[in-house]
Design brief:
Keywords: Coiled coil. By secondary structure, the chain is mostly helical. The protein has one domain. 71% of the residues lie in helices and 0% in strands. It contains five helices and no strands.
Length: 134
């Protein structure tokens, strides 16, 4: 007697299709991040105020985060629907040329975002606290 056993879970299929949709926006989001970086570099070259530099830095961070999320979704979709449920399928998918390409893309975007968070966002000076009376 043969039993029907689904190859992947329904949840994995839903997540796979959702990741495919999110991943389609990756080129647009990457271009948005490039534009935000160009704006930050332009403001730095023009010696803009600290507030404007901070706003541009935060905008770049948000754009990089959106691009990273889309790249991660594309990576998961590239690995295949079985990779959502199976660790070995995920590992095999990363070993393919397309999988390795997206792993590298995700790692480079993550590194760029973390480096920017550490050094690229201007920290505004805090106002001095009011004198405490005793």
């Amino acid at each position: 007697m043969a039993f029907f056993r689904p190859r992947v879970s329904r949840e994995a299929e839903v997540r796979f299709h959702a990741d495919q949709e999110v991943g389609e926006s990756f080129p647009r989001l990457l271009e948005k991040a490039r534009e935000a970086e160009n704006e930050l570099r332009r403001l730095q070259a023009a010696h803009a105020s600290q507030e404007r530099l901070r706003a541009a830095g935060v905008a770049l961070d948000e754009a990089l985060t959106e691009a990273l999320r889309a790249a991660e979704a594309t990576l998961r979709a590239t690995l295949g629907v079985k990779a959502y449920d199976d660790r070995i399928a995920r590992r095999k998918g990363r070993a393919t040329p397309q999988g390795a390409k997206w792993v590298t893309e995700v790692e480079s975007l993550r590194t760029l975002r973390e480096e920017h968070r550490l050094t690229g966002i201007v920290k505004l000076p805090r106002p001095a606290p009011a004198a405490v009376s005793s």
